[in-house]
Structures are given as structure tokens and as C-alpha cells.
TrEMBL record:
Keyword list, A-Z: Leucine-rich repeat, Membrane, Repeat, Signal, Transmembrane, Transmembrane helix
Protein name: Surface antigen protein 2, putative
Membrane-crossing segments per the record: 661-685
Organism whose genome encodes this protein: Leishmania donovani
InterPro entries listed in its UniProt record: LRR_dom_sf, TAT_signal
Signal sequence segment: 1-26
Biased composition (Low complexity): 470-614
Top-rank lineage group of the source organism: Eukaryota
Location of region: Disordered: 469-620
């Protein structure tokens, strides 16, 4: 899809050039439609180079016949030169050495795009290509070419775009000599077996705007502080590498950078507070690194940052209330970190916040009622944290909330019926807390809402009774009874103490259940206890019309006191069988799960003409699991899914599983007919 997009951009660029020609001060020059529009020297020398490719790729040689190379398939000509692209995967062959006896100053080839040939290409990268000093764009993708990156290519001083990706047979190092490519503004070298370190010499690439070194697992060393001199750098990606050390404080001098991505590396050390001076910074991806320290309060000055992915790190400390100044923040990922403390109520002013992932952290305290003002929030993850208290009824005002993941916390109380008013709510996960009562009818009646909670809170499994919020207990702690001397007791049968487990949960176990008891006392026994009363019961009848509606996560503590009692009949007690816990209850499973983003910017679409303006920004790091290429500048929309996945109308990637459709699971149970999960993690990447 990316290749198709580049070809469309190329066609549009060519058309635009033709349209603008009458507007120039010079005499109009018609678009070249035949080889005759070039000079004799240009025709001769350009033809000699193209014929070298035809000889090296036999299938191409059968199509490229004659001298009119502008009429050949896979070539296009305009007044600036010749563009070669679209050669298919059936064209096997090698990359040719450049012929001798050619005046390369008159060779008009400006673009060589072999991105569609793939593994059909073999051999090595010819060092002699350094003679093609007029080439502006060169692309190799998924090829079978091996060898090293030629240092001699430093002579390609007019090269503006170089993309070599997924050619896994490449070895060697990143050539320091390439720092001489003074015109290079886009360099993409990804998913190869390159090794060595990041060359400090590349700091002299002052035209470089995009440097993408992704999935280079054998690259090591540190991030060069010298790269601060890359005065034009906008997008800098070094991911899935063995790069270690700290984030260079010196990079605060990068006055044009918008995105940093160093995810899945061995980087350590703190987040530099000094980076708060990078006013152009928009996105920082540091997921799955060894970054330590705290979240710098000085980063409040990064008012333009919209994506901050810091999950799976060793960051600690608290969530800075000062970050409310980060008015553009839309995605904050801190899951599986060591952050602690409470959720800042002040963050309610983050009006653009859409994804807040804080799962598996040490965060505690309560859910701030003030967060009802987060009108852009789509996904909130707090699973596996220590958050306690009740679910704020006021959160019903979150107009965009689609997924609230709150399982395995320390929450309690009843489930607020008001939450059914959230118009976009599709998934609520509450399993593993201490809630009481039943799932509200308003939730059960809400179309497409999936509620993941223990079955004892749902349907017929939920035992009716008094509202859990008004449960009456006589004491908060089990009474302690001390008997100084066991009196003599005559009992026909020992009383039976029965614990009844129902469907409601409280944070502390009540120790006494109020029942209706009729007691007939004939004589007080001689007993010494810490608290009165001391009674002798001859006949005790306990009648329970309904099972108590209060229960505990642990069996209530029962203190048995031995008294002097003559009982003609033991108390009658009813035992209720605990309900069986199963899976999620949903009124109507959604056709597709709610989606979240994670990172993976696909390559930017660039024009083929060397005289064209710089290409638009690379697409954002993609946070959709199973996605190969994200769409446009949205991390939440996938343009192309990986193998075994299919693209949904919501631009997410799903995969078939037993009984239905699923995405990558994040621990979310689904309805019986649908194997549903939430796409997270994130990660998205560059």
C-alpha cells in the first residue's frame, strides 16, 4: 500500500510540474514524452546505464528493447529526468555494475525504485553505483541482496532519499563516510543484520530530516551526543536494538525534532529534564527500555507533546500534577512501570487526553471524581493497580469513554447505574475487586456493552437482598470473648455455625449478622466474659426469611464461646451454596472490540522528483496490534495488517479464533459466541 501511495504521489508530482511550467519566467518546456526531448549525450549515456540493468535482470531485458527508453515499461520521463519504478517480483536478477566509458554527468536517471522486486534481486550492492551522482532517490525493499553498505556511496552527493529495508542478508556496519551525503534528507535502514555503533560523524548530515534505524538488533553502543548538530532532524528512530547508555542531555539543542523512538532497547538512566526546552517535540516512544528515575515535572513545558509512551520501564515516583500544562497530551502510557502515589485530580484539565494506560503499577488512592471532565478520554487502564474506593457515579459524563479496565484492583461498593449513560461505552472490566450487589439493569439493557465481572454479580446468580450500600452490621471488628474458667455444660448437640456466601462483596468482613432470635432464658450461667450479656439459653429458634445480603471476600470470623447452657433443641441454621464463578455477561457482543493505538510509523510517502518539496511527515508510530502500516498520521487506524489478520472497518486488525473473531487479548473476557479482546500494546512501532 505504501508503494502504491508513492506511485500515486509520483504521478501527481509529474502532473503538477507540467501544470506549473507555464507559470515560470523561462520559456515553457513540454513534458518529455519521448527520448528525443533529451540531448544526444543524455540519450546515449542514460541508455547505456539502463541497458546494464536490462542485462542483469533478464525478464527486464526482454521488455526494454530499442533506444526510446521513455516508452519502456516501468520508466517515466519528464524535463528533470528518468524515473524507474514498479518492476515486479517476477523480475529475478542482480544489481549490475555501472559500465565504464559513460559520462555520468549526463545520465538522466533520477529515481530507482526496486521495492516491488523483493527476493528476486540477489548479489551485492555495487560500489560502482557511486558514479550515479545524479540519482536523487534509491529504494530496495525485501530483497535478497547481501554484502555491506558501500562506503563509496558517499559520492552520491545529490541523493536525497535512501531506503533499504527488510534486506536481511545485509551485514557490516553503518558507514561513517556517508556523512558526506550532504543532500540526504531521508535515510531508512531497517530490519537488517547490520552491527557496530551509531556513527558520531553523521552529525554533519545537516540536511537529514528523517533517520529511521528500526529493527537493527545487532546495533550497539550509545546515542551519540554529537548528533545534536543535526540541525534539520525531525524524526529519529532507533528501535529494537542493543543501544545502551542514557538519553543525551545535549540533544536539547535539536531545535526541529518532533519524534524520538527508542523502544525495545537497552537504554537506561533518567528522562532528561533539560529536554523540556525542545519546543518542537511532539512524540516520545521509550516503551520496553530500562529508563529509570522519575517523571520530570519540568516536562510540563512540553505543551506540544501528544504521545508519551513510557510503558514497561523502571520509571518510579508519582504522577506530576504539574503535567496539566501538557495541553496537547492525547496518549500517556505508563503501564508496567513503578510509578506510585495517587491519581492527580488536577489532570481533569487535560482536555485532549484520549488513552491513559496505567495498568500494573503501584498507584493507589481513589478514582478522582474530577476526572468526569475528561471529555476526550476513550480508554482508561488501571488493571492490577492498588486503586481503592468506589466507582464515581459522576464519570457517567465521560462522553467519549469506550473502555474502562479496572480489574484486579481494590475497588468496592456498588456498581453505579449512572454509567449506562456513557454513549460510547463498550467494555468495562471489573473482575477481581470487592464489589457488592448486582450489575444494574441499566447496564444489562445497554446495547453492545460487555461487562467482565464475576457471575455472582449477574442475572439469576445474583441473590436479591438489601442494597449493599445500606448493609447493617453490629460491629466492625469481631468481639473478643474471654472465658476465665470453662463452666460445666450439658448440651444435647453442639450448635452449628454456618457461613453463607452470597453475591455481594465488602472490603472488611462483617462479623455479625442481624437476625430475628427468640430466646427463653431459665437461668443465667456462671461465666466471666469481657463484655456482657451472659445468658443461658434453653430454647433458641432462629428464623431467616432471606439469606443475608452482606457477605465478605473471606468467610466471616466466628467466635465460639463456651457457656453453661442446657439446650433442648439445637439452633436451626440454613446454609446457602456459593454461586459458581464463570465468565463475562454481555447483552449484545459488539461486532468488533474497542481499539487502542500503539506505535509503528510506516515510511513516509515521498515524491520521486529531486526538485520536489520535502515529503510529508512519516506516519505515526502504530499502536494497533497486528498492524504493519498505520494510516496517515493516526496511530489508531491501520492501513495494512500483518499475515493472519484482517482489516476491520474501524481500521483495526483482528484474527479469527475458535468461536469467533479476536484481536490480541489484554485479559478481557468476552461473550460466549465471540472471542473478544482489546488491542493494546501499544505497541505501535517505529
Amino acid at each position: 500500500m505504501a508503494l502504491c501511495a508513492r506511485r500515486l504521489v509520483l504521478a501527481a508530482t509529474l502532473a503538477a510540474v507540467v501544470a506549473l511550467l507555464p507559470c515560470t519566467s523561462s520559456a515553457p518546456v513540454a513534458r518529455a514524452t519521448e527520448t528525443g526531448d533529451f540531448t544526444a549525450a543524455q540519450r546515449t549515456n542514460t541508455l547505456a546505464v539502463l541497458q546494464a540493468f536490462a542485462r542483469a535482470i533478464p525478464e527486464l531485458g526482454r521488455k526494454w528493447t530499442g533506444d526510446d527508453f521513455c516508452s519502456w515499461e516501468y520508466t517515466e520521463c519528464n524535463r528533470t529526468g528518468v524515473f524507474v519504478s514498479g518492476i515486479g517480483a517476477t523480475y529475478a536478477g542482480t544489481l549490475p555494475e555501472m559500465p565504464v566509458g559513460v559520462d555520468y554527468t549526463t545520465v538522466m536517471i533520477k529515481l530507482l525504485d526496486f521495492s516491488e522486486v523483493g527476493l528476486g534481486l540477489s548479489g551485492t550492492l555495487p560500489a560502482s553505483w557511486s558514479r550515479l551522482q545524479g540519482v536523487a532517490s534509491l529504494t530496495l525493499s525485501g530483497c535478497g541482496v547481501s554484502g555491506t553498505l558501500p562506503a563509496s556511496w558517499r559520492l552520491l552527493t545529490q541523493l536525497t532519499e535512501l531506503r533499504i529495508e527488510r534486506c536481511r542478508l545485509f551485514t557490516g556496519t553503518l558507514p561513517p563516510e556517508w556523512s558526506s551525503m550532504s543532500a540526504l534528507w531521508y535515510l531508512d535502514l531497517r530490519n537488517m543484520k547490520l552491527s557496530g555503533t551509531l556513527p558520531p560523524q553523521w552529525s554533519s548530515m545537516t540536511s537529514l530530516r528523517t533517520l529511521s534505524l528500526r529493527d537493527l538488533s545487532d546495533i550497539s553502543g550509545t546515542l551519540p551526543p554529537e548528533w545534536k548538530s543535526m540541525k534539520s532532524i525531525v524524526y529519529l528512530y532507533v528501535t529494537k536494538s542493543r543501544v545502551s547508555g542514557s538519553l543525551p542531555v545535549e540533544w536539547r539543542e535539536m531545535a526541529t525534532v518532533r519524534e524520538f523512538s527508542f523502544r525495545e532497547s537497552s537504554l537506561s538512566g533518567p528522562l532528561p529534564p533539560q529536554w523540556s526546552s525542545i519546543k518542537t517535540l511532539r512524540r516520545v516512544y521509550l516503551a520496553n527500555t530500562r529508563i529509570t528515575g522519575t517523571l520530570p515535572s519540568s516536562w510540563k513545558d512540553l505543551t506540544g507533546v501528544d504521545h508519551l509512551h513510557l510503558e514497561d520501564t523502571k520509571l518510579s515516583g508519582t504522577l506530576p500534577p504539574e503535567w496539566i500544562s501538557m495541553s496537547s497530551l492525547a496518549q500517556l502510557f505508563l503501564s508496567s512501570s513503578l510509578v506510585e502515589g495517587t491519581l492527580p485530580p488536577q489532570w481533569s484539565s487535560m482536555k485532549k487526553l484520549q488513552l491513559l494506560l496505567l495498568a500494573n503499577t503501584l498507584l493507589s488512592g481513589t478514582l478522582p471524581a474530577e476526572w468526569s471532565a475528561l471529555q476526550s478520554l476513550v480508554t482508561l487502564q488501571l488493571s492490577g493497580s492498588k486503586v481503592s474506593g468506589t466507582l464515581p457515579a459522576g464519570w457517567s459524563g465521560m462522553s467519549q469513554a469506550a473502555m474502562l479496565q479496572l480489574e484486579n484492583c481494590d475497588l468496592s461498593g456498588s456498581l453505579p447505574p449512572e454509567w449506562s449513560a456513557m454513549p460510547r461505552l463498550r467494555l468495562v472490566t471489573l473482575r477481581g475487586n470487592h464489589f457488592c450487589g448486582c450489575v444494574p439493569d441499566s447496564w444489562a439493557q445497554k446495547a453492545a456493552l460487555v461487562v467482565d465481572i464475576e457471575d455472582k454479580h449477574t442475572g439469576n446468580n445474583c441473590i436479591a437482598g438489601a442494597d449493599c450500600a445500606t448493609t447493617t452490621t453490629t460491629t466492625t471488628k469481631p468481639p473478643t470473648t474471654t472465658t476465665t474458667k470453662p463452666p460445666t455444660t450439658t448440651t444435647t448437640k453442639p450448635p452449628t455455625t454456618t457461613t453463607t456466601t452470597t453475591t455481594t462483596t465488602t472490603t472488611k468482613p462483617p462479623t455479625t449478622t442481624t437476625t430475628t432470635t427468640t430466646t427463653t432464658t431459665t437461668k443465667p450461667p456462671t461465666t466471666t466474659t469481657t463484655k456482657p450479656p451472659t445468658t443461658t439459653t434453653t430454647t433458641t429458634t432462629t428464623t431467616t426469611t432471606k439469606p443475608p445480603t452482606t457477605t465478605t471476600t473471606k468467610p466471616p470470623t466466628t467466635t465460639t464461646t463456651t457457656t453453661t447452657t442446657t439446650t433442648t433443641k439445637p439452633p436451626t441454621t440454613t446454609t446457602t451454596k456459593p454461586p459458581t464463578t464463570t465468565t463475562t455477561t454481555t447483552t449484545q457482543p459488539p461486532t468488533a472490540p474497542p481499539t487502542t493505538t500503539t506505535e509503528a510509523p510506516s515510511e513516509p510517502t515521498t515524491t520521486a522528483s529531486p526538485t520536489a518539496t520535502p515529503a510529508p511527515a512519516p506516519e505515526t508510530e502504530c499502536e494497533v496490534d497486528g498492524c504493519e502500516v498505520c494510516e496517515g498520521d493516526s496511530a489508531a487506524r491501520c492501513a495494512r495488517c500483518a499475515a493472519d489478520y484482517f482489516l476491520t472497518s474501524e481500521k483495526t486488525c483482528l484474527v479469527y479464533c475458535d468461536g469467533g473473531v479476536a484481536a490480541v487479548s489484554s485479559g478481557v473476557a468476552a461473550a460466549a459466541a465471540v472471542c473478544m479482546a482489546v488491542l493494546l500494546s501499544v505497541g505501535l512501532a517505529a
